[in-house]
Amino acid sequence: MNSITVKSPASVANLCCGFDIMGIALSGLYDVMKLTKRDEPGISIKHTDRYNLSENPSENVAGVALQAMMDALKYTNGFDVVIDKQIKPGSGIGSSAASATGIVVAANELLGKPFGKKELVSFAMEGEALASGSRHADNLAPCIYGGLTLIRETSTLDIIELPIPPMYVNIIHPQIEIKTSYARQILPKEVPLKSAITQWANVAGLIAGFIKSDYGLISRSLNDVIVEPVRSKLIPGFDQVKKKSIEAGALGGGIAGSGPSLFMFSENISIAQAVEEEMKTVYQDLGIEYKTYITTIGEGIIVESLS
Amino acid sequence: MNSITVKSPASVANLCCGFDIMGIALSGLYDVMKLTKRDEPGISIKHTDRYNLSENPSENVAGVALQAMMDALKYTNGFDVVIDKQIKPGSGIGSSAASATGIVVAANELLGKPFGKKELVSFAMEGEALASGSRHADNLAPCIYGGLTLIRETSTLDIIELPIPPMYVNIIHPQIEIKTSYARQILPKEVPLKSAITQWANVAGLIAGFIKSDYGLISRSLNDVIVEPVRSKLIPGFDQVKKKSIEAGALGGGIAGSGPSLFMFSENISIAQAVEEEMKTVYQDLGIEYKTYITTIGEGIIVESLS
């Protein structure tokens, strides 16, 4: 095997109350990456998309992640990488995570799977750190494991796969920019104990709801009393989108990662379509450009071809 | 049916990281309550135990809970109640909850089950409020539902039954007094966001561990970075008991409710026996009287006889 093509998905981290600990992979929205082994050492990266990302491997999320893996293997040959990024950087739905995970999963396949999933997450974290400035795995783990993952602890990478029932996921990406570092900077350093208890009660309820496929419980638990009240102020139209989506039948939702994209869960496609119409209307009225997607919870990275 | 005898169990609230939201029923440690219908209105209470609790129904946890239920039914006849309390008041393992729940479950049986479990919890809360000064259901719900319960929200009583794998539960009750109100008063009003995130990550891990019967994950998640560091200072020997218990093979544990009892989970009886020996040694060395129990997670209130 010399060449592999993978699709690496968008993802949603946090899921309201699950700030910094949970994430899901999405289906239907992927970066496409082709990786070819070569005899010469080093990594060459070519982007065929329109996002003007650096093709210098040490300044490219995918390059840094792949290099971390090659270093661990003491791999002396090289790779040619072609990336067609379809998940816009800075959208809040795991664009850098898709790059960082897609490339290490692809290389691992090509090399006969020397590494397990957890090790792949740790290599991908090196790339993610380049993009966000902090070591987080909440977008990475769902890309590699698929579905819903919990990161109980980041330093030891205690990753837990959790069940989640079928749901439709609306994404709306208003074309504004929020820096992840700024979204992190405005968080309070201290929070009321009472709010913290409310938050962990909702985290517990959300996981219980996922496990029991109890959509009512999921809906009641999709509630973030700590981060959303602060970060939602950075996103014009947030309150309206949330209110209108829930009126249209959505189970709930909020900010995807650190934004600006918003997500909503729905039980069926017709609700998701109604939610999308409401979301569009809000941003049309505000005169803000947007992109919307109706998708589902996905299985993570998909190997397209191997030759 | 005129008369019923029930056994109402001890319980452990909080379970480390699950402060204020989780609780389990225990087996093997029960108050015994006999309830007999009578034609005259009112409630008469007789205690056959040695705890000198008030037998005035309006000053007795069981009396207040039963009265709340009778008021809801507009019930005009009365009850004779005999209580043999075996769970020492102030022990931290739900003595008042056993009284408050046992009596309403017993009366509900006698009256042909007019109420569901959630309504019974709400009547029992009236009694619990008399004992603790605050409306909490984390000890009540497991007595009525059995096993492990989550209280996602107290005001609407959003109670969720959760699976929990078989475990042995060590309880040690050092014979010191901690007032629930004081244990609550010393809690910080604000907590670092970072600690709160650690706590809800552990809550998520603990529930996932219970659901997957993953004892390793349960062990890693039984970690309270917010309440235990403050409250454990009120309990002599706490750090030693915890350290020695874990060295003896316990999965983990901490303060039962607001203390002073401590609990530890273990995977099998021989570990639980070793843990008990370690616990005893700590309090013998400290010269503090104690009681210990080795028990399991229980099914909640048991109807002993109905005639």
Describe the 3D structure.
Two copies of one chain form a homodimer. With about 300 residues, chain A is an alpha+beta fold. The first copy, chain A, folds into two domains: about 5-165 and about 300-305, 2-Layer Sandwich (Ribosomal Protein S5, domain 2); about 170-295, 2-Layer Sandwich (Alpha-Beta Plaits). Helix content of chain A is about 40%, strand content about 25%. Chain A has helices spanning about 60-75, 95-110, 115-130, 140-145, 180-185, 195-210, 215-220, 230, 240-245, 270-285, and strands at about 5-15, 20-40, 40-45, 80-85, 150-155, 160, 170-175, 190, 250-255, 260-265, 290-295, 300-305. In chain A, the strands form two sheets. In chain A, strands 1, 2, 3, 4, 5, 6 and 12 form a seven-stranded mixed β-sheet that branches. In chain A, strands 9-10-7-11 form a four-stranded antiparallel β-sheet. In chain A, a hairpin with a 4-residue loop joins strand 5 (about 150-155) and strand 6 (about 160). In chain A, helix 6 (about 195-210) packs antiparallel against helix 7 (about 215-220). The longest helix of chain A has 20 residues, at about 195-210.
